[in-house]
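Practice problem 4.
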């Protein structure tokens, strides 16, 4: 695992005591896997509950390589774009074949139902019962009405409608003082939703120059920094880079807007999340 404190600005943060909860970056790239690893994916562990948050291309391979693919208790997918859900079929195949495992609940916006059905139609194997509709059988959808809260075991999850071209939910884990923005433009609602929380915030681009984020539904390092500043966040962790080589420049742009602690995501990075009263 990578220590978060090796990448923070400014230097000098105190060491956190052991916590029963952790949020680990599995993949932090927008669009597709890059030299730095997988597309979007994060592993949340709270006591005995392990939740995969987003499942983009490369996430399943990383979890398999690190021996944690069978540790999952649930999956949350924020929206239907491929870089956030493309590995769901690989996960379903793994859980269905050669020996079927117990189904995992999949929490996602209702709009993902169409994508799941299409995946099953294209990639299902009709000659094998266990792979006839692997997503339907292995990852049964628990549709979330965006704006409502739900629970996964002991973990409460609040949702906010993100400003993105498809239905997308930003996530807040109030017991952990943590917000994951998913893909979104900067909005007043997101600032209020993120108030006082550790932020895992998308920063797809270095700046917004020549881009219409209100239509495209993303943030740059500038907007991510503004979000952290206005939400009074104790820590900003940047993620969802369109070009991993731009991570340093993106962080510097955020630092122009936010004077607090900032880090950029990389696979294995552990976020310091608050202690949870269990």
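Answer key:
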């Amino acid at each position: 695992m990578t220590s978060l404190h090796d990448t923070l600005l400014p230097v000098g943060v105190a060491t956190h005591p052991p916590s029963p909860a952790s949020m680990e970056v599995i993949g932090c790239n927008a669009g597709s896997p890059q030299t730095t690893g997988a597309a979007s994916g994060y592993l949340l562990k709270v006591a005995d509950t392990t939740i995969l948050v987003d499942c983009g291309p490369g996430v399943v391979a990383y979890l398999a390589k690190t021996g944690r693919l069978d540790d999952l208790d649930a999956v949350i997918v924020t929206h239907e774009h491929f870089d956030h859900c493309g590995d769901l079929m690989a996960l379903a195949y793994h859980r269905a074949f050669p020996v079927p495992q117990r189904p995992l609940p999949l929490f996602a916006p209702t709009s993902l139902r169409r994508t799941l059905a299409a995946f099953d139609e294209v990639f299902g194997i009709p000659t094998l019962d266990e792979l006839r509709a692997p997503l339907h059988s292995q990852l049964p959808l628990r549709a979330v009405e965006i704006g409502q809260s739900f629970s996964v075991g002991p973990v409460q999850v609040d949702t906010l409608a993100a400003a993105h071209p498809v239905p997308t939910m930003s996530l807040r884990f109030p017991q952990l003082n943590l917000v994951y923005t998913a893909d979104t433009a900067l909005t007043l609602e997101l600032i209020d939703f993120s108030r006082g929380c550790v932020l895992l915030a998308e920063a797809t681009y270095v700046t917004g120059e020549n881009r219409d984020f209100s239509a495209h539904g993303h943030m740059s390092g500038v907007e991510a920094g503004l979000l952290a500043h206005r939400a009074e966040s104790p820590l900003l962790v940047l993620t969802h880079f369109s070009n991993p080589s731009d991570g340093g420049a993106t962080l510097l742009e955020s630092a122009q807007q936010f004077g607090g602690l900032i880090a950029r995501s990389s696979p294995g990075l552990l976020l310091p999340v608050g202690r949870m009263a269990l």
